[in-house]
Write a structure and sequence with these properties.
By secondary structure, the chain is α/β, with parallel strands linked by helices. The protein has a seven-stranded parallel β-sheet, sandwiched between helices. Helix 12 packs across helix 14. The chain has two domains: 222 residues, Rossmann fold (3-Layer(aba) Sandwich), CATH 3.40.50; 167 residues, Glycogen Phosphorylase B (Rossmann fold, 3-Layer(aba) Sandwich). It is globular. 39% of the residues lie in helices and 17% in strands.
């Protein structure tokens, strides 16, 4: 078995993702990259599938960036294999000491190329079981789950020593609302912010929740921030239910403006079916915006103390979301108490200084230690096989057509 040693003087590090788009994972990557750079690492952010709409932020944050585009290759027989080889050769040439991967399929697939030169860390941000299984790559040096639930799921696939939990943190706002500020003074009622994707975020329940409120005389307003595959479908649902006067869409917003939206809204709505350790939830609490969120064990319930700093509702209970929002809007005293408790909890527990320090300690734990590396195929067989004869995008197209017929 070959052994190589991590050069403690070589602190080149890659933060990889499939692309950099608006959302919590991209914020995580940029914030962690800035922190590691400030601690002596040469940080590059590598996007393996495309740029994404936040790619320009890499340079704005003082980091190096590089992107690839996988679209053409996913329409070609064996195209993903060929493209994975391109990614792998690039990563091997760059000889990063550390690769911290955030859900990039091609980093998994090409791991054999740089298996002998880089420490490989996969961060699992999503507690969907099939996603955790995918991230649980035996070629990794460590799997990091961002919530206890993800850690628990990953340990079903890998030895316990390969898995750790580092909960997400957030950049706390510079100026927090004062203790005498009342939530009722905020001009807007409900905020949804995130990827407009019903499969994960449950966005198609937004019109149903608003309909519930209106039918009970609660004429609340909602702001929906974000974009995604179900954006147009959601807008059409709102239009067909004559809810356009109550639900306002902003599309994407500049990152520096997001804080203002949290601060001007009373309640955050998070009706997700699955999450990791949702940054949006913690950011809202840090601004005193009270969350009404899905109860996701070992995920959202590690952020929110139900009944104290927010309300947790079973994911399928649309009426429960509506009732919780109505009760909070109608009980100003209770809403204000929850707002203050959310603020306090966020300030005491959610600072990313804690999680960033844990990542730094993880990297430092590898320094000076030999990497025991045996021979492995260049293309990781867990991720790519002979089935790649059929173009990947063709498979997806057929699946979408079949789903429409069901």
């Amino acid at each position: 078995m070959n052994q190589s040693k991590t050069d403690s003087k070589n602190r080149r590090l890659a933060l990889t993702a499939y692309m950099l788009s608006m959302g919590g994972v991209s914020n995580f990557i940029l914030d962690l990259g800035k922190f590691l750079k400030s601690n002596g690492y040469e940080v590059s952010v590598i996007c393996t599938d495309g740029k994404g709409d936040w790619y320009e932020r890499i340079g704005q944050e003082g980091l190096q960036g590089r992107y690839f585009n996988s679209r053409f290759w996913e329409w070609v027989p064996f195209g993903r294999m060929i493209f994975a080889g391109r990614i792998g050769r690039f990563m091997k040439k760059e000889a990063f000491s550390y690769v911290i991967n955030n859900h990039s399929f091609y980093i998994h697939a090409a791991a054999g190329y740089f298996y002998g030169t880089s420490r490989i860390i996969h961060v699992a941000h999503n507690q969907l079981e099939q996603m955790v299984e995918r991230e649980s790559d035996p070629l990794a040096d460590r799997i990091v789950g961002v919530s206890p639930r993800i850690e628990e799921l990953a340990q079903q696939h890998l030895p316990e020593k390969m898995v750790t939990c580092i909960p997400n943190g957030i950049r706390l706002p510079g100026k927090l609302p004062g203790k005498d500020e009342n939530s009722r003074d905020r001009p807007r009622d409900i905020l949804f912010i995130g990827r407009i994707d019903n499969r994960q975020k449950g966005v198609f329940r937004i019109p149903e929740i608003m309909q519930y409120l209106l039918e009970r005389g609660c004429r609340a307003g909602m702001t929906v921030i974000g974009d995604g595959p179900d954006f147009q479908a959601l807008k059409q649902m709102v239009l067909s239910r004559s809810l356009s006067d109550y639900i306002r869409f902003t599309g994407k917003v500049d990152p520096e403006k997001v804080s203002g939206y949290y601060a001007s809204h009373k309640i955050l709505l998070l009706p997700s079916y699955f999450e990791g350790h949702p940054l949006t939830l913690m950011e809202a609490m840090a601004h005193g915006c009270v969350p009404v969120a899905s109860l996701l064990p070992q995920s959202t319930d590690t952020c929110v103390v139900h009944g104290e700093s927010g309300i947790l509702v079973e994911p399928e209970n649309t009426e429960g979301f509506g009732r919780a929002i109505q009760e909070l809007l109608e009980d100003v005293k209770r809403l204000n108490i929850m707002s203050q408790k959310a603020l306090t909890r966020a300030g005491e527990r959610f600072s990313n200084a804690v999680s960033h320090r844990q990542y730094l300690e993880l990297l430092e734990s590898f320094e000076g230690k030999a990497m025991e590396r045996g021979h492995v195929p260049l293309i990781n067989r867990k991720y790519l096989s002979w089935k790649e004869l059929v173009p990947f995008q063709l498979v997806l197209w057929v699946k979408r057509k079949l789903l429409k017929t069901i």
